[in-house]
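Hi all, long-time lurker, first post. I run a small reading group and we've been trying to get comfortable going from sequence to structure in the token notation. Rather than ask abstract questions, I figured I'd post a concrete chain and ask someone more experienced to write out its structure so we can walk through it together at our next meeting. Sequence below, copied exactly:
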Amino acid sequence: MSGSARWVRFHVVSWRRLLAWLAVFALGTTAGSTWATVRIGHQVDALARQRDLLEQRAADLETRMEKLQQSLSERRRRPLRSIEVKLAGLDPADELTLVREIRKLLQGLIGRPVDQVDPALVAQILDGRLVSAGGRAVSLSLRQVWVTDSLTVWVDVRAALPR
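-- Answer (accepted) --
Happy to help. Here is the structure in token form:
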């Protein structure tokens, strides 16, 4: 051999060793994907809840705007402009659903003159009502009602007794 000749090295890999390396690669890919999914999953859940809240606010504002425009066109005195719900005794994950249900029940009061909104009617609508929240039945107990430009209700939530 002369000084210009070079040796080329070949690595021979058996099928068994190749399959072992492929299995380790697949396992690493799976573990990495699982870790990334778990890590990002919480952020996705938080963003989904925030989106639902914003969609609810947008729907409430749209309904409120329509009622106010209708009220202004009819030249009523000081209309009820919004509904605010304060809950106690409920899991925060179910709060959005229950607030939406209570607002649906009281939606017909928006746009009415404040002097025609009867707190006893609000109590009759809400107090003792059974509503589904998070797949379980809960009982509403009206604690307090304020009627100004905005109707504010404070509601205690308890698990409904089985029948």
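A couple of things your group might point at:
The chain has a mean pLDDT of 87.
Strands lie at 82-88, 130-133, 136-147, 150-159.
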